[in-house]
Amino acid sequence: MSKLGNLGARLHRGEIGYDFVKNRKIWYGLSILITIVAIAGLAVRGLNMGIEFQGGAVFTTPKNISVSVSQAEEYAEAASGHDAIVQKLGDGSLRIQVAGIETDQANQIKGQLSEDLKVDSEQINAELVGPSWGEQIANKAWQGLGIFMVLVVIYLAIAFEWRMALAAFVALIHDITITVGIYALVGFEVTPGTVIGLLTILGYSLYDTVVVFDSLKEQTKDLTKQTRWTYSDVANRSINSTLVRSINTTVVALLPVAGLLFIGGGVLGAGMLNDISLSLFVGLAAGAYSSIFIATPLVADLKEREPAMKALKKRVLAKRAQSAAQGGTEVHDEETYADEPEDAAPAVVGPRNQPASRSRGRGRPSGKRR
Q1: Spatial distance between the Cα atoms of 319 and 333, rounded to a whole number of angstroms
Q2: How many CB atoms are closer than 10 A to CB 242?
Q3: Domain that holds residue 170
Q4: In a shared domain, residues 195 and 92
């Protein structure tokens, strides 16, 4: 742990660092690939909408029933003539969902299930769900998502600038698309719990992004008055200085969610935990990734299109080329740009040692002045 703390301190001071901004094209390509896979899964398989959005009936059997899930699914489909979804709950009971049936059909299915499962009809609990309720939830969720997006963009544009607001918006769309695509590929049922999870990850997705943006805003004050760093250099320093913090907060948030997903949902069979925890797990991981690999490099790309930043970049590169030609002793991290001249020196990332004054202590072993 002490080594990790020392690593975080060195990253924060800029003594070491990984060049995230330099490799931004790799991250963009990886994100585009993941997004394409998610969209393809959504288009091919579609979302497994829960009964709350389709309407139908839910039957709950007594505890510790001796019938297997696959056998109960066969009984339910034979009795209803529709596809059925059967889940085994933690207490040993079965939850049987049949979509697209009416009240009279539900009573008939309940009676048939009692015979097939060899239990008393009164012991089977039947609940009817109308599709209008799920539609209302979906509409409210879309409205909430739209309002949230607008408010976030406005706030970030005021607190930071429009380029950061745009980058954060792209990162949010990236995270939501991946999360929904994973749901389609995995085949988990989309329930109101899923909607709650999706809305919850929006705040988590922005958390690390705003932390990096705040550091970037502070470090780029009066940036054009110096010739040591470009905007991309400072953006890279901002990511590295907050990297350990972002990793720690993400891991701490993912651990309990993973417990809900793999233990609560997988081992104990609590279906509602699966609905919420999968969206949270994927969303938290995607949010941490996008804040580091998408949002900040995208801001650097947009910012360096400004005339002032282009001019600064030329001055910095010219100074580095001059220093390299004169045999300068500065230590730089390797960084190249597509439009840089071949003889340009690499960018500075992190503090550099200032040369001692040539006249200081000359002729005096102690170095003291009289």
Answers
A1: 15
A2: 24
A3: 2-48+133-307
A4: no
